[in-house]
Write a structure and sequence with these properties.
The complex is a heterodimer of chains A (about 140) and B (about 700). Chain A has helices spanning about 1-20, 30-45, 45-50, 65-70, 75-85, 100-110, 125-130, and strands at about 25, 130. Chain A is an all-alpha fold and about 140 residues long. Chain A has a single domain (about 1-130), classed as Cytochrome c-like domain (Cytochrome Bc1 Complex, Chain D, domain 2, Orthogonal Bundle). Chain B has about 700 residues and is mainly beta. Chain B has a single domain (about 1-515, about 545-700), classed as 8 Propeller (Methanol Dehydrogenase, Chain A), CATH 2.140.10. Chain B has six helices and 39 strands. In chain B, the strands form eleven sheets. A four-stranded antiparallel β-sheet of chain B has the order 1-39-38-37, with no helix packed on it. Chain B has a four-stranded antiparallel β-sheet with strand order 2-3-4-5, with no helix packed on it. A four-stranded antiparallel β-sheet of chain B has the order 6-7-8-9, with no helix packed on it. In chain B, strand 3 (about 80-85) and strand 4 (about 90-95) form a beta hairpin. The termini of chain B are far apart.
Chain lengths: ~140, ~700
């Protein structure tokens, strides 16, 4: 009972945290150039599991489309960046620099058709937590 | 050797003492050796399922040197203790069944051998054995060593193998190449123990792009649970003097490998028979180096529990080319067909056929028809002119692609889908792979292959009503295209690939991801890609990002994932429901299109079912955010008789292992493994709130 209450309050805390993000992936949070760099890096480090198309392999999850968006909708780019940074690429987790991970994240955003902008994605999870992943553009 | 084995067997027969497990326990991976995933418990039922609360959770982050996001275990529960595997270390752990308190943990550091293992991470579970006095836990490490532990303490049993360990890379009727450390062979499923015999299969890397047409072979062995001594072996690729050898033309049985049993093994202890679901031979999609039918690839094989001698076999797919494997536990079912009692075995599959045989004779319960199938055109491939089709029950999931299967939320979406598939070869089940061409076809578009239908979590079976309950992915598309392999990649003529894209080694999750793999380095690696050294561009208009989706929506229409109830007495589907909430983006697209559609279910191959006295229970495989619940996934219950919703409870992440249930101190619990996205592996135990546990009487106080 106590545990349940705990997990609910954690959830609420999580939701509050996400709400504090002031921008979303719809706000042009990466540049075309960064995504271009990210594409080359993606092909080098990620494509053998997730495929050139980002559609995933027989057993690897897609990084594009509805399933991917369902998994990350409502979280922040900081969450996605940290998952990539700490566990990918699988055969040598953590070997990629923050810059590389940010470029790859930018490429993933571009393939998912989120708009590019004038400033590059930052390289730290703290700043990336300010950017919310919304599968649908929210009207403000 | 022979005499020794016979002596051991005699001893085994005398000492075999089967403990009667209680209904409230879950003593083996699939609940019992029959593979039912069934317990006749009913404290949790349709009237209270939605009131379930978290009793305890166990986060697996610290069981290994990194978090795991692919927790697939199904725990056991015996005598008030929950046993399971966990973490990137794949340690065996024991937990208090009422509180989740960690009682012991046993992990093996395997160094380079663990790092080279084809199937890393936490695995799917372990096995329990007792003779009424001693209790033992057995599991297989990523590095393919069988570990035997004292269930009370987690300490290795010194009299088993060498100090509690049997090196499974040895005494395997083959030399594991290139060496014991890096030789490719492993296992992620749970061992099975029947009478006093531990039965162990084998698994390999994903087979889309094998490094070579030559590989180690996945034989199956039985070991004495008391000593670790090998009792028997079954050659899944026959030796020269054995039945089936001549189904490998041009001597290809000599060098072809894989053909293991990586999924769960089922045993009928009374009949003394073991049922082996055998996987594909080397090369999931190209068999030009293994001409012939390739027995016992993708065959259900019945062997003797005491000797490993083959009793019967049935090849479900001749000359496998679709990665259908046999991917889950065969199910033992005592059924009644037209007044005739049959001891049957039912085999759910990726291709959505439920194959049903007399488990004594191997004869199909309903006619199996050898029907002509399309002959492919890939150079030097060998094609079987026919494949077996069960006449009953009907396929419970899509296993071919036709225009009728395409998304039709709006006419425009359907038109887009038609344009996309015009670049692919499509057809019914067993439509062969193609050589990928830039001008088309890019691939054969398939359903019911690599990740379709029922995968490793398997199905459930109710021994009272003779109904199988099977989850299936009904829309998991796999494009199967072949490209000539660069010699640097493989000595095979063809491997999986897409025209216009670099042909690369395709790996699967779990490879290089376990605790023995290289640790994160602090120094960032140089980024040679920076400055524009790009990879090959995706093929124009077809293989491009999202190429198999329409505006980010699945190319195939709902239902995406289903649960089917299939009567084995009648060979008919009793009911079928979409499993899982409509995903967020699909809900939004439907709203925009003004289409009012029922629940669509979700894509995903790793959903398993549990059945109790009245319920079918399965978690969702995807995260959604709806007006009913915050971001998360639901553990759902259905009325077993009708398929109607019978409640749902919130989980913070999708189900990634099959649920199990047990009774402890008068309370029923359900444990489920969840993980994925940003949520690392966790076992969650649910139970009813205190006021519910004594039923209506208690509620009056």
């Amino acid at each position: 009972m106590a545990l349940r209450r705990l997990s609910i309050s954690l959830l609420i805390a999580g939701a509050v945290l996400a709400q504090e993000a002031t921008r979303s992936v719809w706000d042009g949070v990466y540049t075309e150039e960064q995504a271009g760099r990210g594409r080359a890096l993606y092909n080098q480090h990620c494509a053998s599991c997730h495929a050139d198309t980002l559609m995933g392999g027989e057993m690897s999850p897609p990084l594009v489309g509805g399933e991917f968006m369902s998994n990350w909708n409502g979280l922040t780019l900081g969450d996605l960046f940290e998952r990539i940074r700490t566990t990918m690429p699988q055969n040598n987790a953590g070997k990629l620099s923050r810059e590389t991970n940010a470029d790859i994240t930018a490429y993933i955003l571009s393939v998912n058709k989120f708009p590019s902008g004038k400033t590059e994605l930052p390289h730290s999870a703290e700043f990336l937590r300010d950017i919310r992943i919304d599968s649908e553009k929210k009207q403000r | 050797m022979f005499r020794l084995t016979m002596l051991a067997l005699t001893a085994l027969t005398v000492s075999a003492q089967t403990r009667a497990y209680k209904d409230g326990e879950w003593p083996s991976y699939a609940a019992d050796l029959a593979g039912t995933r069934y317990r006749p418990l009913d404290q949790i039922n349709a009237s209270n399922f939605s009131k379930l609360e978290v009793a305890w959770t166990f986060k697996t982050d610290s069981i290994g040197n990194r978090k795991e996001f692919k927790l697939e275990g199904t725990p056991l529960m015996v005598n008030g203790v929950v046993y399971t595997t966990a973490g990137s270390r794949r340690a065996a752990i024991a937990l208090d069944a009422a509180t989740g308190e960690l009682l012991w943990v046993h992990g093996e550091h395997e160094g380079d051998r663990g790092a080279a293992a084809p199937r890393q991470l936490s695995g799917r579970g372990l096995a329990y054995w007792t003779d009424g006095k001693q209790e033992r836990i057995l599991y297989v490490t990523p590095g393919y060593r069988l570990i035997c532990l004292d269930a009370k303490t987690g300490q290795a049993i010194p009299s088993f193998g060498k100090n509690g360990v049997v090196d499974l890379k040895l005494d395997d009727d083959q030399t594991i190449l290139p060496d014991l450390t890096t030789g490719e062979i492993g296992l992620q499923s749970a061992p099975v123990v029947a009478k006093d015999t531990v039965i162990i299969g084998a698994a390999f890397r994903e087979g889309m792009t094998p490094k070579s047409m030559r590989n180690n072979k996945g034989y199956v062995r039985g070991f004495d649970v008391k000593t670790g001594k090998r009792l028997w072996i079954f050659h899944t690729i026959p030796l020269k003097n054995e039945v089936g050898y001549n189904t490998w033309e041009k001597g290809s049985a000599e060098y072809t490998g894989n053909t293991g049993v990586w999924s769960q093994i089922t045993v009928d202890e009374q009949l003394g028979l073991v049922y082996l679901p055998v996987e594909s031979p080397t090369g999931d999609y190209y068999g030009g180096h293994r001409p012939g039918y390739n027995l016992f690839g993708e065959s259900l094989v019945c062997v003797d529990l005491k000797t490993g001698q083959r009793k019967w076999h049935y090849q479900l797919v001749h000359h496998p080319l679709w990665d259908m494997d046999i991917s889950s536990a065969p199910i033992l079912a005592d059924i009644n067909v037209n007044g005739r009692a049959i001891k049957a075995v039912a085999q759910p599959t990726k291709q959505g056929f439920l194959y049903v045989f007399d488990r004594v004779t191997g004869k199909p319960v309903w006619d199996m028809e050898e029907r002509s199938v399309e002959k492919g055109t890939v150079p030097d491939e060998w094609y079987s002119p026919t494949q077996p089709f069960p006449t009953k029950p009907p396929a419970y999931a899509r296993n071919g692609v036709s225009k009728d299967d395409l998304i039709d939320f709006t006419p425009a979406m359907r038109d887009q889908a038609l344009t996309i598939i015009s670049k692919y070869h499509i057809g019914p089940v067993f439509t062969p792979p193609v050589e990928s061409q830039l001008g088309g076809p890019l691939a054969t578009l398939t359903l019911g292959t690599a990740s379709g239908g029922t995968n490793w979590p398997g199905a459930s079976y109710d021994p009272e009503t003779h109904i199988v309950y099977a989850y299936a992915c009904n829309a998991c598309l796999t494009p199967i295209g072949l490209m000539r392999s660069p010699k640097t990649l493989s000595d095979m003529e063809y491997v999986a690939g897409t025209a216009g894209q670099e042909v690369r080694n395709r790996t699967g999750p779990g490879e290089n991801a376990g605790a023995d793999s290289p640790l994160p380095t602090r120094a960032p690696a140089p980024s040679p890609g920076r400055g524009g050294r790009g990879g090959a561009a995706p093929a124009a208009g077809g293989g491009g990002a999202g190429g198999l989706s329409v505006n980010g929506l699945p190319l195939i229409k709902p239902p995406y994932g289903t649960i089917s109830a299939i009567s084995l007495d009648k060979g008919e589907i009793v009911w079928q429901v979409a499993h899982g909430d409509t995903p967020d983006n699909i809900r939004a697209a439907l709203k925009t299109a003004g289409v009012d559609a029922p629940r669509t279910g979700q894509l995903g191959y790793n959903v398993g079912t549990l059945i109790t006295k009245t319920l079918v229970i399965a978690g969702e495989g995807q995260v959604t955010t709806t007006t009913d619940h915050p971001r998360g996934a639901m553990l759902r219950a259905y009325d077993k008789a009708t398929g109607k919703d019978a409640g749902a409870v919130y989980m913070p992440a999708p189900e990634t292992g099959s649920p199990m249930t047990y009774m402890m101190n008068g309370k029923q619990y359900i444990i489920i493994a969840v993980s994925g996205g940003n949520y690392s592996g966790e076992y969650i135990a649910f139970t009813l709130p205190a006021a519910e546990e004594h039923g209506p009487t208690a509620a009056q106080h």
